[in-house]
Structures are given as structure tokens and as C-alpha cells.
Amino acid sequence: MSTLHSKWKRNRKGEKNGKGLRHFSMKVCEKVQRKGTTSYNEVADELVAEFSAADNHILPNESAYDQKNIRRRVYDALNVLMAMNIISKEKKEIKWIGLPTNSAQECQNLEVERQRRLERIKQKQSQLQELILQQIAFKNLVQRNRQAEQQANRPPPPNSVIHLPFIIVNTSKKTVIDCSISNDKFEYLFNFDNTFEIHDDIEVLKRMGMAYGLESGSCSPEDLKMARSLVPKALEPYVTEMAQGSLGGVFVTSSVSTSNGTRLSASDLINGADGMLATSSSGSQYNENDEED
């Protein structure tokens, strides 16, 4: 009778452990996935608390054994998850990697990631192109202003100077414009009752030819040579590609056309330009006589 009872207890315990192991593995996996980053002690403590609350009828000596058993199972489950590359462990820190996927799903995910990175590269190319155009335009402006000062042997009259940064608003003479400026002069609100265009300083400099036609891919060999001389040597190949229209294939314009009220901040007006590029003996300026709009 005693032997039969012991055998029955062992069989029951084996079934309980088998079911418990699967259950614990799922529990551990869910907790690590939900937390993202955790530790063995954190997962084990939470599971001990959860199962202790569910089995509050267990005697104290049995409870101590169950807690030890729970922690051992958590440890085993974590090792299995690491072997399957579902989680990673560095010192005491455990991080969620992800459930394994089939080859088709993995291929699809890689293609999505590839497209995302290609789009990011395209955006970076456009940003690089615009920054190169800004540097060339500003340096060309500095040279032009310096030559004008040397020829006139004097700085330009104060009323002919427009300091950077600036914007030009173009609209019909009949348009009614309401302009509000914040107290700190950081925000400007324009309300127009008709269509209008806004051009920033770099767009104006492009129209003045300060970018040597690189923005439209119409740069002559002579102008290309001048443009290359205004950028660091490492950027010269990019200037050549821009002249050939092969850098990103996108030409950026800074003009804005709209018919609604537009709010502009000072950072919008600066448009990422480096002020040091626009420094000359008398400061960089745009002569109102050069305006073509």
C-alpha cells in the first residue's frame, strides 16, 4: 500500500512538473517581452509573488520549497529562451530580441528595412545637396561683396544692405496682409487674403546665380570649377555629381507658395545655414539692387 501511494505521488508530481514547466516558459517569455529589458531576479520575484498569491493555502514549509522550485524553473526557462535566440543576456541584464520567424517573413522584414534605409539615404542626399548649395552660395556672396568693396574703395551704403537671414514675400499689390509678431520676436504670423509666395535667403541667392546653376543642373564647366573651389576637397566629388544631376536626382527649392496664414519661426528663417560662411570684412549682405523678383 505504501509503495503504491509513493508511486502515485511520483506520477502526480511528474504531471504537475511537466505542465508547470510549459506554463512557466510561457510566463517568463511574456514577461521579458512586455518589459523589453529586465533581470532574472525581477522575473523570478514577480512569478513567485503571483503563484504564492494563487496558492495561499500552502503550508509555510511547502511554500518555501515552491518558491525555490519556481526560481529554478525561471532560470531553466531563461536558458532555453537564450538558446533559441529569443532573448539575450549581458551580465545581469536580460533583453528581448524577438520570437523566431520563418524565412519568408524574415525576407519580407528585411525588404521593408531595406526600403526604409534607401529612403533615409535619399533624404540625407537631399540634405547634403542643400547644405553644399548653401555653402557655395554664401561663399560666392562673400567674394562678390569683398570685390565690390575693393572696387568702390568703401563699404556699401547702410540703406543698400540686407543682413542674413531674411525672407521675401511675393504677392499681388491688392493683397491685404496682416502681420503679427510675438513679444520675443521669435514667431511671425502672416495672414493673406490672396495667394502668395515666400522665398528665403538661399532661394534668392540661387536666383541671383550664387550657386552657379547647380540647383537646376545647368552648371557650365567654368562655373563647376569655381563651385568646386568653394567647398572642402572631400566634397568636390559631390559638387561634380550635382552638376551632372546624379546626386539623389532631386533638386531642392526653398520657396513656399500658399494661400493660408503661415507661422514662421526664427529657426525656419535661418534654414540651417552656417553664419560663419557669410562673414566678410563688412558682414555678408544682399544688395537690394540685385533683387530679381
TrEMBL record:
It is found in: Nucleus. Its main location: nucleus. This is Transcription factor. Residues 1-20 are annotated as: Disordered. Residues 16-98 form the E2F/DP family winged-helix DNA-binding domain. It comes from the Eukaryota. Belongs to the E2F/DP family. GO terms for molecular function: DNA-binding transcription factor activity, RNA polymerase II-specific; RNA polymerase II transcription regulatory region sequence-specific DNA binding. Keywords: DNA-binding, Nucleus, Transcription, Transcription regulation. It holds the Pfam family DP. PANTHER family: TRANSCRIPTION FACTOR DP (PTHR12548), TRANSCRIPTION FACTOR DP-1 (PTHR12548:SF4). CDD domains: DP_DD. Residues 105-249 form the Transcription factor DP C-terminal domain. One of its GO terms (biological process) is regulation of cell cycle. GO terms for cellular component: nucleus; transcription regulator complex.
